TrEMBL record:
CC terms in the record's Gene Ontology section: COPII-coated ER to Golgi transport vesicle; endoplasmic reticulum membrane; Golgi membrane
Range of residues in the leader sequence: none
Listed PANTHER family: IMMEDIATE EARLY RESPONSE 3-INTERACTING PROTEIN 1 (PTHR15858)
One Pfam family of this chain: Yos1
Cellular compartments annotated: Membrane
Keywords: Membrane, Protein transport, Transmembrane, Transmembrane helix, Transport
Gene Ontology biological-process annotations: endoplasmic reticulum to Golgi vesicle-mediated transport; protein transport
This protein's name: Protein transport protein YOS1
InterPro entries: Yos1
Organism: Exophiala oligosperma
Length: 94
C-alpha cells in the first residue's frame, strides 16, 4: 500500500469510485432507476406538461446524469492506465 497516512488511500478510493461509475451499464442499471441518458429529455419520465422543458438543467438529477455520462466517456481510457500502474505497483512493491 502506498502510505497509510499519505495520499495512497485517497488515490485508491478515488480510483475505485471512478471504476464503479465507469462500468455502470446504462441499459441494465441506470435506465431502470431513471438515470439513463435517454430519460434526461423524455417527457413521459417526469410527467411534464406539453410545451414545457423536459428536465430542468440545473436539477440534481440532470447534473448527476451528465456527470455519469462524462465520467464514462472521458475517464475510460485513463482509468485503464491508472489501474495498470496500480496493479504493477502492488505486485512489485505491495
Amino acid at each position: 500500500m502506498l502510505s497509510l497516512f499519505g495520499f495512497g488511500p485517497i488515490i485508491y478510493a478515488t480510483c475505485l469510485l471512478l471504476n464503479a461509475v465507469a462500468i455502470l451499464s446504462e441499459d441494465r442499471f441506470l435506465a431502470r432507476i431513471g438515470w439513463g441518458k435517454s430519460q434526461l429529455n423524455d417527457p413521459s419520465a417526469g410527467g411534464v406538461a406539453f410545451g414545457a422543458p423536459a428536465q430542468d438543467p440545473e436539477s440534481f438529477r440532470s447534473k448527476g446524469i451528465n456527470l455519469i455520462s462524462s465520467i464514462r466517456t472521458l475517464c475510460r481510457v485513463p482509468l485503464i492506465f491508472i489501474n495498470t500502474i496500480i496493479v504493477i505497483y502492488e505486485l512489485l512493491l505491495g
